[in-house]
Amino acid sequence: MAIREIATRPNKTVYRDGDLCYKTFAADYCKSDIFNEALNQTRVEETGLFIPKVHELKKLNDGRLAIVMDYVEGKSLAALMEENPSKHTEYLEKLVDIQLSMHKLTAPNLNKQRDKFTRKIDMSGLDATTRYELHLRLDSMPKHNKLCHGDFNPSNVIITDDGRACIIDWSHATIGNASADAARTYLLFKLAGDDDSAEQYVKIFGKKSGAPRKHVNSWLPIVAASQMVKGKEEEREMLSKWADVCQYD
């Protein structure tokens, strides 16, 4: 089977080569971030969760680095939603079920969500008063150690032909609070302009998890500030409003 491109993102391209998948990074991509992503994925592997198994971190002939992992055959939940709009709610329910099954696990060697948010708030470019308020809010949040994806959305869930769910892209993985992970998913729907899915998702998450909506809402300013670090410039105004603790409350 010839090597073929299966996905492309800014600074990243994914290729399939038979049973293997090569996630390649631009030459100027931060080396420590690449190593951290590979390490995150191997640590999540150890939980027993169904994810692509990492085989090696490889330097290609052109000097780029690539994470070599199993190729998982299937369709993303995002693709299934697009192909079957009448099943949209059913797929959102499935998305939440998969997320909650992940939250039942922990991976003690992963980075702590709280530490990551602390760094991101400092790097957000927000004014000192807003950063101070965000740090106060973060310090007041319940401390949990659940496995959190950090970028959980329908594009990062592959459904195989036999119906199993495989979660991909573990570059943002941490252990921490599940409501923060849900706030991130909610925000991703909002940033994509899919307000209906955002609201439907957060209602389903609350119903299935038993967590009140206010628990997710309380994380939104923190998650928005974190997104500002590598977010798109056109999203910055919207994210600034979300990150304003006083205005949001």
Per DSSP, what share of the residues sits in E-state strands of 2 or more residues?
Answer: 15-25%
Distance between the termini: 55 Å
Number of helices: 10
* Strands ordered across the widest β-sheet: 1-2-3-5-4
Query: How can the largest sheet be summarized?
Result: 5 strands, antiparallel
Helix content: 40-55%
Order of helices and strands: EEEHEEEHHHHEEEEHHHHH
Architecture overview:
This protein is of the alpha+beta class. It is built from ten helices and ten strands. It has a five-stranded antiparallel β-sheet with strand order 1-2-3-5-4, covered by helices on one side. α5 crosses α8 and α6 runs antiparallel to α7. The N and C termini lie far apart (55 Å).
Task: Give the SSE map.
Elements: E1 4-9, E2 12-17, E3 20-25, H1 31-45, E4 54-59, E5 65-70, E6 75-76, H2 77-83, H3 88-103, H4 113-123, H5 128-140, E7 146-148, E8 157-159, E9 165-167, E10 174-176, H6 178-191, H7 195-209, H8 213-227, H9 236-243, H10 245-248
Antiparallel strand pairs: 1-2, 2-3, 3-5, 4-5, 6-8, 7-10, 8-9
Helix pairs in contact: 3-7, 4-5, 4-8, 5-8, 6-7, 6-8, 8-9
